[in-house]
Design a protein that fits this description.
The protein has 222 residues and is mainly beta. The protein has one helix spanning 17-23; strands at residues 36-43, 49-61, 102-115, 121-127, 131-134, 142-146, 151-159, 162-170, 176-179, 190-191, 197-200, 203-210, 213-220. Strands 1, 2, 3, 4 and 5 form a five-stranded antiparallel β-sheet that branches. It has one helix and 13 strands, in the order H-E-E-E-E-E-E-E-E-E-E-E-E-E. Helix content is 3%, strand content 43%. The chain starts with 16 loop residues before the first helix and ends with a strand.
Length: 222
Amino acid sequence: DRETNQQTIQNAIKFDDALRQQAKVEGNIKFAFNDYFIRNVILKKDGSFILTGENYYTQSRGNPWNRQDYLYGYSSISSYNNYYMYSPSGYWYRPRGYYGSQTRYYYNNIIVMEIDKNGQLSWSNVLNKSQFDDESDNFLSYQIMNAGGELHFLFNELERRNQLIADQSITPDGVLKRNPTLKSLDKGYEFMPRFAKQVSAKQIIVPCMFRNYVCFAKIDYT
């Protein structure tokens, strides 16, 4: 409670085997959530909130003293924590192969759940995806476009050796919808959905790369 500065509700939610089976990428379901990190907390007017988490980990080969490869692949100085560290003009920018080792980034399934105002799990669902890249995770992960009636999850998906922006959405009651891939994508552009920014109720701006130039794409929802 903001006025009394006291906690109002505390509750532990046990994930059952069905949810673990749905969320796991590989291995035993007991460890299904070991590599999940909280990405978004979206508050709702009725006091409930939507929580999203993403399965993320790295694997490194070569130099064992990579300071950016601490627990789960990044430390407090990692470029993951700051958008500007990805920029070639940024102080902490690291070109590929900087550390003399190879790091592969994996970004997999997304779990979405709604917690009601009493701290109970209302519903949950899992968006299945499989992404990886070497030495850079700029083009991995996802971004949310809040269209009011739905939450759109935008992320790159490999199709016939081409990266297309997939659009999967969650309705207010937790139903998953697989929408067609976005249209009018020009060839040669590599999109970075994780750095996208929603600028209006129906519009989102997505950074992209084209022949080593940084540019921006505008996506309009009707």
